[in-house]
Amino acid sequence: MMQKKNILALLLAIVLIAGVFAGCSNNSGTNNEGSTNTNEQSNNGGSSGQTDLKPANIVYYLWGSEGPANKDILAEINKKLKADLNCTLEIKYIDWPDVNTKYPLLFASGEKFDMSHASPNAPVSYYTLAKQGVLTDITDMLDKYAPKLKAEIPEETWAGNKVDGKIYGVPTLYSEFTPYGYVYRTDLAKKYNLSPITSPETMEAYMDAITKNEKFPALNGNSNDAQNLYRLFVGYTGSWIAAPGIPLEQMYLVAQSASDYKNIIHPAFTDQFVAWAKLMKKWADSGYWPKDILSSQVDAKTNFNNGASGGFITHMPDWTGNYGALKQTLPNAETDFWCPEEQNNKILKKAGVENSTVISVTSDNPERALMVIEKFMTDESYYRLIQYGIEGRQYEIVDGKVRKPASYNPDVDGGGFAAWALRNDKFNIPLESEDPRRYELIDKWKETAIDNPFVGFSFDSQNVNSELASIANVNSQLGIQIMLGKAGDPEKAVEQYRNQLKQAGIDKVIAEVKTQLENFTPIYEQK
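Now predict its structure.
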C-alpha cells in the first residue's frame, strides 16, 4: 500500500509540474506480454543453460531511438539469452527530446517493465526513485542470482548505490571523467604563432586571432554556450566544485572545495563572478561569438566540424569522441583541449552510480532481469553485442580498435544502444573514431582525480520547489545574458542579478542544502 501511495504521489507531482501527462502515449498496464508472473525457482543464478527456468520476456527501457539494425542485433542477443536463461529481451526507447518528460512518467505511471537506466543526474534522481519505492531492492538477490557480478564490482562502487543501506541498482564498471574545457584548433594556433591555451588570457589571445583573421568567430554557437561558459568559469575558479541544490543545467551552486563541501555558495555573490562578467562583456564586444548568439539554432560543435568556428566548449569524452567526425570534414585540422579543472587539480572521480541499471518494482521477473544484467556485464560475447553490434556488420576489430567494416551501410547497418550503464573496462575496446588521447587522459586522471563528496547525497527539493522555479526563471533570462555579455554594464547587471536571486529565494535554497548536508557523511569517509 505504501508503494502505491508513493507512486501516486510521484505521478501527481509530475503532472502538476510538467503538465505533460495528457500528451504522452497511454502505455500503462502490462507491456511485457511475454513475461510470466512467477519468481525464479533456480538456485543456480548466473550460470548458463537454465533449463529449469520458465520462459520470460524482459522489457528494458533505454534512452535514444531505434537504429535500422537494432532489431537484428537484438535477435542475436535473444538467441543467446534463450539458450542461457530461457528468456528474451525487449527494448523500448525514450527518444532524446522526450527524456525529461517521459522518463519520470515511466516510474510514476506504474507501467509494468523490468529494467531501465538510472542516474543521480537523470530527470528523476536514482536516489529519489529508490526512496519513492519504485525500484527493486536487489541487496539480498545478488548472492543467489548474480554472484559473479557481485564479486566483480568493488565494495566501494556498490556503496555509491546504497540508499539507507540497501542496493537498488547495478553500477557501471566503466571508468569515465567528464570535466569541461575549450576545444580549439592547434593548427590555427601555430599559424598565428600562439602558445597553447592555459588560461583565460591565452584563450583570449587565440580567440582574438581567430576572429580577426579567419572568416568565422572563435565560438560560433548558440545560447547553450552561456551555460558552457559558466562551467568554464567554475572550473577555472580556485577549488570550487559543483554542489547540489540547483540543477546542473542552470547556473548552479558550488562548494568552496571537495574538503569544504558543506560550505555552499552561489558564485554570483563573489568578486570572481564580477570579474568574469566583465570578461564576458569584453569578449562579446570583441566579436568572439556572433551578435545573434541568443537566437542562433546551430551549436558551436557543429560549426566547428564544418570549419565555421574556432572552437567549442564541451567535456573530455565529447572532444575525444568527435575525432572521427572532424577527420571526415576537416582532415588537416588538429585540436587540443584546455581543461581548467585539470590545472586546478579538481577533476572528480565519476562514481559507478552515475550510470546504473535498475529493476522496476513492477517487474514480474526481477531475478531474471538481474541475471540478464550479469550476462551483459561479465560475459564478453554479450557485452560486444550490446555495445558494438554484430561483428562483421556493425564493427570489426583491426589492430586492437573497433571500426566499421568496408561493407557498412548506415541506412541498413546503422544501430546500437545507449547502454552506458552496462559497460565494463575489461571488455572495452577503443574505437578507431576516438582520439587516442582519451585513454591517455583516463589513465592519468585515475591517479590524480579526487573523490566527489556528494556521491550518495540526494537533495530533497520539496521545501524549496517554488524558490527553485523562480531562480530558474532568473537564470534563464538575466543569468544567460550576463554569461554571453549581453546584459549591458557588467557591474550593474551583476548587482541586478544578485537582487533578483535574493528575491527569488536563493538564501532559502542554500540554507536548505546546508541543513540536509549537516548529517551527511561522504561514502569515502564512512567506515
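Residues 1-39, 41-49 have pLDDT under 50 and may be disordered.
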